[in-house]
Amino acid sequence: MAHTETQDTTTRRDFLYIATGAVGAVGVAGMVWPFVSQMQPDASVLALSTTEVDLSPIAEGQIVTVQWRGKPIFISHRTPEEIKAAENVDVASLRDPQPDSARVKQGKDQWLVVIGICTHLGCVPLGHQGEYHGWFCPCHGSVYDTSGRIRQGPAPLNLELPPYNFVSDTQIVIG
User: Fold this and answer.
1) What is the pLDDT of residues 39-66, one digit of tens each?
2) Domain 46-174: which topology?
3) Which residues are within 8 A (CB) of 26 and not within 5 positions of it... i.e. 6 or more apart?
4) 140 is catalytic
5) Where are the domains of the chain?
6) Which residue has the higher pLDDT, 142 or 14?
7) Which of 3, 120, 133, 140 is catalytic?
8) What is the pLDDT of residue 5?
9) What pTM was computed for the model?
């Protein structure tokens, strides 16, 4: 009979250890979850990871601004004259040499999509301004052409290109 009592005591003791450990693990998980959860990106940021834009209402010669990841994105529906001016530039004369063809999607050269932040100090340039009729940053005088390439002023680089793709002839997805 003593043998049975020892076996029952061990079994009860094992059960109490397992139950206590399980309750402790649940308690620790309950305390850690809020910390892990708060490290996740906010839903508003996740919603902006891609931005769809309908190009059909943008008139030729018009520049529109949309938001992507909290940044302004300039979408320019370039005229044939603007495209020709951008293509006829001697690339070797540019501070940040890049041909116009490298800044647009093949077959869609009427659409220029750039991040609207000056590469000098992060200001937002004004469209259809400056000597080259592209963008002008009034803060320090940087001038960009119709391809978003730096032509004058202190900015060291061209306006950045965001990742984007055409999903149809009149629809793009940025990001």
Assistant:
1) 776 665 555 588 899 999 999 999 999 9
2) Rieske Iron-sulfur Protein (2.102.10)
3) none
4) yes
5) 1-40, 46-174
6) 142
7) 140
8) 55
9) 0.72
Q: Are 127 and 63 in contact (CB under 8 A)?
A: yes
More confident residue, 3 or 112: 112
Q: Supply the pLDDT for residue 42.
A: 62
**How far is Cα 132 from Cα 26, in angstroms, rounded to an integer?**
65
Residues contacting residue 167 through CB under 8 Å, at least 6 positions apart = 52, 173
Which tokens in the block code for residue 81? Answer: 């004259």
Is the CA virtual torsion 125, 104, 48, 62 positive or negative? positive
DSSP structure string for the chain: -HHHHHHHHHHHHHHHHHHHHHHHHHHHHHHHHHHHHHTSPPHHHHHTSSEEEE-TT--TT-EEEEEETTEEEEEEE--HHHHHHHHTS-GGGSSS---GGGTS-TT-TTEEEEE-S-TTTS--PEEEETTTTEEEETTTTEEE-TTS-EEESS--SPPPPPPEEEEETTEEEE-
- Picking from 67, 170, 44, 175, the residue whose alpha carbon sits closest to that of residue 116 is 67
